[in-house]
Amino acid sequence: MATNSRIKLISLVALLALVAGLSLAQDANTVIQNARKAMGDLSSVQYSGTGKMGGLGQSYSPNSDWHVTVITSYTRTIDYPSRSSKEELTRTQENPPDHGGEPPFAGEQKQVNMVSGEYAWNQPGNAPQAAIAAVDERQLQIWLTPHGFLKAAAENNATAKSAKDGGKKVTELSFMAGKHKVTGDIDDQNLVTKVDTWVPSPVLGDMLVETTYSDYRDFNGVKFPTHIVQKQGRHFTLDLNVTNVRTNVENASLQVPDAVRQATAPPVRVVSQKIADGVWFLGGGSHNSVLVEFKDYGAVVEAPNDENRSNAVIAEVKKLAPNKPIQYLINTHHHFDHSGGIRTYVAEGATIITNEGNKAFYEQAWKQPRTLDPDKLSRNPRKAIFITYKDKYVLTDGSRTLEIHRILGDNHNEFMSFAYLPNEKILIEADDFTPPAPNGPPPVPISLGFANNLYDNLQRLKIEVVTIAPLHGTVALMSDMLKAIGKSGS
To answer: Fewest Cβ atoms nearer than 10 Å: which of 188, 270, 332, 427?
Structure first.
């Protein structure tokens, strides 16, 4: 009898679980239907406005907001059936320009970012440029819009539960969009007020992307928010005030250019250039590194972009100095395009040399889960070892010396540092002076301000430079920088 009772109990529990599951699914469908009824259903939408952008990973200091630029014009057109989106925007620098920053620019900068199905591209002029790495994120952004969220929730078997947001009762819908978990809040007016998801970041791991929608208005029978704020990594990347909305626009789907269809992801290239005995400039991409050989080990300056770049640089280092382990990785500043590959060196057993202002940020960021894009360090964890300094650190083996100095008064990054080889008179620096390409446009005024401040620091420290190994661009002479900042006669 006892056995029969247990069987009946187990069966009852299973039945209740099944009923509960069906109830949740039914509740989710009801929530979606009510929201569609309240907000209106549409196949395409175009919305326009103005606002501000935050440059992801480009804050002045590790814990401040991302670098801000002003959006003077913004239009986004989405066609849901074809999974296509066209984002057009014009932006300018704040006045005065905000500390921190992406590549400096003067005047207006126009961007056109597109995605259609499995293809993404940019259209800076008449020639489309494939953006293969952006496909996943741009597709995801379509389903983060209010009406896109409801469509994706209906198609991906969303579940529903009661929740609270800021003390207000909401219904939370959750579903998986590919590898991405997506959750969204529906308020008591049946409006989508928030949508969250997570995307992989080389620095922050599974990075939270949270988008809030407020101040809904009726546009030809469709309710649409007039204030959109998106945060990535807890700081805003978009703050948009919507002024105009068109629904079910004609010709909203995009034709993918043949050049984009035929494009393939370029391989990661590392091109080494010997600039002194035992000193190698490692270029071949948008960002550079430098190998400095000591008697028994090697030190690499900068680990930019991501693990793929670091793996390629490490492989080249092992060819150039096969019997010298990489003992140190020197990091100039925390901007994500300059720190995205540091964890790869930690996995290799290297000690990280960085300013004391960066250590706590890295330690906290590297604690985050990395389930979306596991790297070497997450697969084989080991504790990161840091050497930090306030203003100066010297690395030497008795014959070769490498100095690391913090740049005071730097408007690009609070803890920006450079490396200097006194015997070779080689300066290794990031972002403050990028030699212009041959026959290319001269540096913009903002970047010249960075270069002038770098020059002032070199004068303050009484550092004599002959060769500049920039972490963007190509090897140059100090005379090139002096000419750029109008001090060639000094």
So the answer is: 188
